């Protein structure tokens, strides 16, 4: 009898092991597989810098391989050419997103409101993408440049007051987060914050940063090992942030609805949707659009500007600054770059500069996963529908077979003939970031104005100098989006009198716009 009991126990353990060690898809024949552990797969190997760990695996396995993370089987692309082959050539097969436990079940447990970028491909996602694409097309983006005017004026004016003509070290990060959030709040909801240290601004920034951690590909093991969902700590934290996020989203929407009812709202995307009687979007879909715009902007704009300024403050960066400044002077010898940058992009070196910032720092190093909706033939290997895919954007942007000396910051790589896909900072293919054109215009205008206004210098205290290595400069390598480590630098006005005249022009224009909207 005892022997039979032991046999039964062994059989039960074997069955449980088979269940726990199973994957959502069978092994893909013909595609190299990363080594891993039973049940956990390769989760231990990803460690903190998951995108760099995948890049190192690609050196051994080849640019495209399969990997097990818990019970999920995933195909990872790690080179420029393989990403173009899978994400662009097969973009309609890779148009959907997977549903992951932490973000889609816990963070969105009550409202089931997902950002557009994290939504599976369905009719609702199509409607939201169409409405957002219309709001972010080139003519629409140009209509938002007055917002970039006032917000860049505000942050530059504050830095001018704070910098003491370049004598003191400044932490610019709060100012730039406010610039990014205010810009988005204005064109999304028609509202803004008046201080870089407003508690509500800090609340939104904190919550959005937490949301990126819950969307992390390697930091949420419960997405891949269902047994871990029995331990509530991670879920409780995610639920707490969800409640706080839903609270401020509702406040923003209710405030805008009140302004519309009183006919006092400022022109904005959500306001236009609410006033459009033909729009076929329900309230949750409208909230999703607002949440998507806030999330995408806070992911992209502040980090890229912060990283850009951090590099420009270095010795090499100051050489790049001076070249950029001379190019600006050559194109605008009459000193009207401050105004012209809002309506045109005519300084190729500054365009090359922001493209190199996007590539070098690749703030979304491992893009949000895709899920195929049809079979894909990759070099004779059939990858079945329903497979998860990871785009290792960092690996693609540092591919030595495509970029010469990729670990060197060099804007000149983007002068002259450039591939139509310059980098993967915005993803690629059918679900590429909808706001990339707006982001590029913001980056161009900001750097034109900033470099025209200041010399960006290293700090007095070397301990506060920026870290220039893109991997080491990331404060939270396990998060979905890179977060710059704190640093300080100095800002020396190039010509204080001229700068003050530019600021006065923007100030008066902002006042006139405010009066005309009230009238």
UniProtKB/TrEMBL annotation:
<dbReference type="GO" id="GO:0016705">
    <property type="term" value="F:oxidoreductase activity, acting on paired donors, with incorporation or reduction of molecular oxygen"/>
</dbReference>
<dbReference type="InterPro" id="IPR050364">
    <property type="entry name" value="Cytochrome_P450_fung"/>
</dbReference>
<keyword id="KW-0349">Heme</keyword>
<feature type="binding site" description="axial binding residue">
    <location>
        <position position="433"/>
    </location>
    <ligand>
        <name>heme</name>
    </ligand>
</feature>
<dbReference type="InterPro" id="IPR036396">
    <property type="entry name" value="Cyt_P450_sf"/>
</dbReference>
<dbReference type="GO" id="GO:0020037">
    <property type="term" value="F:heme binding"/>
</dbReference>
<keyword id="KW-0408">Iron</keyword>
<dbReference type="InterPro" id="IPR002401">
    <property type="entry name" value="Cyt_P450_E_grp-I"/>
</dbReference>
<keyword id="KW-0479">Metal-binding</keyword>
<dbReference type="InterPro" id="IPR001128">
    <property type="entry name" value="Cyt_P450"/>
</dbReference>
<dbReference type="GO" id="GO:0004497">
    <property type="term" value="F:monooxygenase activity"/>
</dbReference>
<dbReference type="Pfam" id="PF00067">
    <property type="entry name" value="p450"/>
</dbReference>
<comment type="similarity">
    <text>Belongs to the cytochrome P450 family.</text>
</comment>
<keyword id="KW-0560">Oxidoreductase</keyword>
<dbReference type="GO" id="GO:0005506">
    <property type="term" value="F:iron ion binding"/>
</dbReference>
<protein>
    <recommendedName>
        <fullName>Cytochrome P450</fullName>
    </recommendedName>
</protein>
């Amino acid at each position: 009898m005892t022997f039979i009991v032991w046999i039964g126990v062994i059989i039960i353990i074997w069955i449980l092991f088979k269940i726990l060690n199973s994957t959502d898809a069978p092994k893909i024949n013909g595609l190299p597989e990363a080594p891993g552990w039973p049940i956990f797969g390769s989760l231990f190997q990803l460690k903190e810098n998951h995108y760099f760990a995948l890049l190192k695996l690609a050196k051994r396995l080849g640019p495209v391989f399969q990997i097990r993370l818990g019970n999920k089987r995933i195909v990872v692309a790690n080179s420029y050419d393989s990403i173009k082959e899978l994400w662009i050539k097969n973009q309609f097969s890779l148009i959907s997103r997977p549903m992951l436990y932490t973000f889609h079940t816990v963070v969105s447990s009550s409202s089931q409101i997902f950002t557009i970028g994290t939504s599976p491909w369905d009719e609702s996602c199509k409607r939201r993408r169409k409405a957002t694409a219309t709001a972010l097309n080139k003519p629409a983006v140009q209509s938002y440049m007055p917002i970039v005017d006032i917000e860049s004026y505000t942050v530059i004016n504050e830095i001018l007051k704070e910098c003491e003509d370049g004598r003191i070290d400044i932490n610019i990060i709060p100012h730039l987060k406010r610039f990014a959030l205010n810009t988005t709040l204005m064109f999304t909801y028609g509202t803004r914050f008046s201080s870089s240290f407003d508690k509500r601004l800090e609340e939104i920034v904190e919550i959005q940063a937490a949301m990126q951690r819950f969307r992390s590909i390697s930091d949420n093991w419960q997405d891949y090992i269902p047994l871990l969902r029995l331990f509530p700590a991670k879920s409780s934290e995610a639920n707490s942030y969800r409640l706080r996020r839903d609270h401020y989203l509702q406040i923003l929407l209710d405030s805008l609805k009140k302004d519309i009812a009183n006919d006092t709202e400022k022109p904005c995307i959500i306001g236009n949707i609410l006033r459009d009687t033909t729009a076929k979007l329900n309230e949750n879909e409208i909230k999703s659009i607002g949440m998507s715009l806030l999330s995408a902007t806070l992911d992209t704009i502040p980090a890229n500007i912060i990283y850009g300024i951090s590099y420009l403050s270095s010795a090499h960066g100051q050489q790049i600054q001076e070249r950029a400044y001379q190019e600006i002077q050559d194109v605008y010898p009459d000193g009207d770059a401050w105004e012209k940058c809002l309506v045109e992009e005519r300084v190729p070196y500054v365009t090359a500069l922001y493209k190199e910032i996007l590539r070098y720092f690749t703030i979304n190093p491992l893009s949000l996963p895709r899920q195929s909706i049809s079979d894909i033939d990759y070099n004779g290997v059939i990858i079945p529908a329903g497979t998860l895919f990871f785009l290792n954007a960092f690996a693609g942007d540092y591919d030595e077979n495509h970029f010469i000396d990729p670990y060197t910051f060099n804007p000149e790589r983007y002068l002259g003939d450039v591939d139509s896909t310059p980098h993967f900072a915005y993803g690629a293919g059918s679900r590429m970031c909808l706001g990339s054109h707006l982001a590029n215009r913001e980056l161009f205008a900001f750097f034109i104005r900033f470099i025209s206004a200041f010399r960006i210098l290293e700090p007095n205290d070397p301990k506060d100098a920026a870290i220039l290595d893109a991997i080491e400069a990331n404060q939270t390598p396990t998060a979905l989006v890179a977060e710059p480590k704190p640093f300080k630098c100095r800002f020396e006005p190039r010509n204080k009198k001229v700068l003050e005249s530019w600021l006065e022009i923007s100030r008066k224009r902002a006042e006139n716009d405010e009066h005309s909207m009230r009238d």
